[in-house]
Model the fold of this input.
Amino acid sequence: MLFLRVVPPEVVDGVVSGLYKVTGSVVRDVASGRGVAFLQETSVVQSLLNSALSGVSSTLQNGFSPLGAIALIQNQQIKSRLVEVQSSLALLQNLQIGTLAVSGLGLGVSIAGFAMMLKRLKGIEAQLGAIEAKIDRVTTDRRSDDIRMIFADVGTQLDIVDTLSARSNRVSSAEAAEHALATSSGRLEAHFQQKSEAMQIGPMTSEDMDMLWSLAAAIRLCHEAGFRALYSIDELEAAKQLAERRAQRFLNLSQGLTPDSLARLCAQSASDSISFAEARRLALPQAEVLVHGLRDSVASISSQSELAQNLIENQIPGPAYLEELAGEKVEPLLMLAPRP
Done:
């Protein structure tokens, strides 16, 4: 490996001991805030996570909501599948289920292939369909049609991004794909904001929170594919600036949402104080998964800006970085050292 290397024991030990903290994809010295390493997931970890979370689909078929199903999966169950492959994944000891729910690990640049990205997109689309089947069709039909059109556009762009290396017009294709994905992301953000504002008026249900989770996951999928397109044509400065802006936009989407306020809105229709307290208690875990997932995703997006800056400073071309990642077939997690 030219740029990336296996995470050394001293970094793992530093995280385990509390000397370092993982924020997004950056390992930071707790005392100084200095970045000591950038973590980068590979296609190996994508496959493992896909396998570890495969039980969610069967749980959904039994009537559980997406967030409710994911909340049932214990952190250790997922991490144990990963630790089987590499001990350095102890770095993920504080991994939150909410982060997985919205955006997978979100460490570095995604190199998931078209089939896996499309599977995620189709899974989100299916979840939205199941959610909206439980909601009043009069108010959702028009929104559902627009979201389905957005997803169709995203699927087309995922195919283009995955085949960029084989295209003679790579630059123009990548720029067009990134622009289309950014447009789709913006449209999904509008749906998210509209749904969020309606929820905060109340009353709301668990299906409403599931809707926000699904929209957030789709937005992050657009982000991942867009960054991949920019890296493929070495537009690292653009990737850096977009990551900064998207982190702020994602933060704006999550502002005003707290686990307690969402749980209270879910309990709003309770007939008495005892029923209210019980309904709030039942809704709180799902609300925590959603809100923590959104906020952790902000850190993940922000760290992508730092990663792009580090590649620029170390004069590492985006295409070469992707090529090295694509060639990794054993290690699920690698490390990029910051500039000395």
Summary: The mean pLDDT is 79. Residues 114 and 159 are 6 Å apart (CA to CA).
